[in-house]
């Protein structure tokens, strides 16, 4: 959720309406600096701040021992049912609520290692065993865990390490004395079996594997741009009054050619919708799994066995290194603000993390620079329109905002700061909401004594609060006002410059014959160089993500001198220009929401194995949608896609292919015949044709999907590999079958 929760938005709207008209007029035209000066005292402790405290209780992010106990017991229950994936998630949630270094958290890691072992994730299982030991796993339970360690090492072919682990188990058993109860006898029996297995493997060594050339990465020639960090030398940075800063092709560019590789300056994970792990909805704790449980909060890698934050239950990481780096750079400040940041939305969170990563010295330098001249951000935007009139240290010798003194545009805080906030284009009410939210964050920082962390000082104890902060009506310190002004700027910038980091996620259980995937917003980020690309409904590039890194590839031939365009709008609108019927936006929005709810019910019926009912409901949705949407509306395509999914679950491959082909026609109208969206749709069609033994159609579809996806995702992507496996399988069929098809 980019913006704050609805209750806070309504609270801010009421506060705005209650202001004196003269104050509203001043705020409407005020610069960002003056907005903060006028608005710092408008967050009343007994009113707006109290509302925020109440809302924060709905999004608890602290550690709860009772929650840890519940999740651990629920994990044990799922483990007993052999539902190991769910058990791993529940043990992870339990660990996030336990105190670091406690025996309880060590039990969570040990239990999770058992589930991981059954799933065949032996390397990760070993990591969890090491975590359990380092957190003080109870001595009496250690032999069982050490045996699991030996089994993992044996499965990984690390025979000497496995033998050493077994020796450690034997020594442990010998130190503990006689073992007579049934559980101990089971351990001894397993120990003997493992020793036999190790001996057998040592006697029959596995042949050495030949080096596989397939794992070599693409060695595409890459000549980096001398003035734009991360960009290809085939791009140039231009500026004019109409388009502002933009990138153009310096030379002819071919489809699939890499144009830009950029690491996000800052990114914040979006929790997203939750997937329920619990059988019953009547539980004392939330058992939904969201993106916050599935991806590392720093590098955005997919999580299998998360490392919890030391201070809160929300932040989770892929490794201890990621957890430590995040803590040092920003999370020690954010940690206690978790509930507040979840309430105020991702944009506010991105703004805070941006200034924390930049550091107070750099933020202060740029904020003070923006106060020069007329002390009005509109003056800065005028300088952006006429850059040649204002070359200086910040805009650089080339005169283009964001470039350094050497005329280089780098992926830096200076470049982020120079992204336009378009303050004059936001409604006064929206700017007021953003200001009030930013002030709430900064006041919480001040009240929690976190200024030392914010200003990069060694400890908050060395920061002495100004006496005026305690005596005045909740005023902010001068330093926090600077940080608040920068944060307000970034929140407004994000309306136009936020980049969604997306990932392809499977829909449903993933155990069907056809894997149905869709792009899901994983995080919101600032990419300073990527933000140079202007929008077009007919883009000539494609953007893909790996963790926090973006890769831009040409999606079509781009002649020298042509501008590089990126499509970043996601809107539902009627695509029939000849339609003369007009309805209000509110009415259309309501009808679309009702339709989407019905589609959601149909998918739930499919999940409950009620395919016939799902088909009937989807067909009814199609009829209803036909009354107010054009045949080429994207939602019409989605319904065809869902019908294809239902028929595929029934094994009716021809029907599934027919509906998916209709969906592809609609997607092609909106995104073009060579778009990445068409590539994903063709991938699904290839699976359906493959399963239906439509060999010739499947082979031609595979070829087209390969051509498109290799351009957008690279020749080594997972989907390309799956397409090649399908093609190999089809070509190996007996000639008699190939001739019949």
Automatic annotation (TrEMBL):
Keywords: Coiled coil, Cytoplasm, Metal-binding, Methyltransferase, Nucleus, S-adenosyl-L-methionine, Transferase, Zinc, Zinc-finger. It is found in: Cytoplasm; Nucleus. GO terms for biological process: heart development; methylation. CDD domains: SET_SMYD4. GO terms for cellular component: cytoplasm; nucleus. The lineage of its organism: Eukaryota, Metazoa, Chordata, Craniata, Vertebrata. PROSITE patterns: SET, ZF_MYND_1, ZF_MYND_2. It catalyses: L-lysyl-[protein] + S-adenosyl-L-methionine = N(6)-methyl-L-lysyl-[protein] + S-adenosyl-L-homocysteine + H(+). Residues 296-335 form the MYND-type domain. Residues 233-569 form the SET domain. Protein-lysine N-methyltransferase. Monomethylates PRMT5, modulating its transcriptional activity. May also act as a histone methyltransferase. Plays a critical role in cardiac development. Acts as a key epigenetic regulator of gene expression during cardiac development via its dual activities as a methyltransferase and negative regulator of HDAC1. GO terms for molecular function: histone deacetylase binding; methyltransferase activity; zinc ion binding. Its main location: cytoplasm. It comes from the Eukaryota. Residues 585-612 form a coiled coil. This is Protein-lysine N-methyltransferase SMYD4.
